Amino acid sequence: PCRVFLWLLAILLAVCIAFGVYVNDYYHADPAAEDALVSDRFVTVTEQDGNWVFVPESPTAGLIFYPGGKVENTAYAPLLHDLAEDGILCVLVKMPCNLAVLDRNAADSIPERFSEVTDWYISGHSLGGAMAASYAAKHTDELDGLVLLAAYSTADLTDSGLRVYSTYGSEDGVLNREKYEADRVNLPQDTTETVIDGGCHAGFGSYGAQKGDGTPTISAEEQQRQTADERSHRLFITETGLAELRKGYESILQPFYDLWRSSPEDFEAFMHYADRLAAHIEKGREKIRDHEVL
To answer: Could you please report the per-residue DSSP string of the chain?
Structure first.
């Protein structure tokens, strides 16, 4: 019995050592990420219980973010800082041992801390995205949507009522494409999906190259900008963004459309004079440029 106990103890010790080595070999955030952890006049950045919070002046929605497996959570600070500039309050979760699988319920109680935000979304990169999807499937009454970055959902979300957005880079060498395609059936039919041309797996964060990844043709900064831009996030997940788009249509495009329908002749005349005015303005600019050159 004593010998068996010693053998079991030795095996347990070996497993603990192996696990310790595994989790301590992770991707560290680069200097660009550290810069994004500083507050500016648009976004207030604070650390709360290990999580990083990016708060805009007037939040229109909230986003809880699960980092990728074995990636330091602060590597995603630039992406979330950009999103916060667009009015989205972001909470970057710190995972035990940098593995979201060890705390897939990390989003619990986060929305309750920010009473000013009513619409909440959850997002994640790679393994973090898979765990975010798993959490979303069990909290459909508390969340409005899910954003997947180079990730797929093994949980069935087809009838969840969630708004789902999925994106990955065209040069991603880490994402299991076969698994991604197979699990697409778990997403709602109205899921929005985009492929970032030239992007890779690691480009969603700022932690350098990742083993097994493809060669990107755009910078990580550009990939994060495309991920966070108004088309792919702000208008997608905020009712305020949709309202602004609707307002722009009503105030700018609608009058022209009404004129065209009610009086085609007047519309054609208007467009004729508008073209002449535009040509006159452009001609004036050319004269100014010629003068500057001289």
So the answer is: -HHHHHHHHHHHHHHHHHHHHHHHS-BPP-HHHHHTTS--SSEEEEEETTEEEEEESS-SEEEEEEPPTTB-GGGGHHHHHHHHHTTEEEEEPPPGGG-GGG-TTTTTTTGGG-TT---EEEEEETHHHHHHHHHHHH-TTT-SEEEEES----S--TTS--EEEEEEETT-SSS-HHHHHHGGGGS-TT-EEEEETT--SGGGSSS---TT----SS-HHHHHHHHHSIIIIIHHH-HHHHHHHHHHIIIIIHHHHHHHHH-HHHHHHHHHHHHHHHHHHHHHHHHHHHHHH-
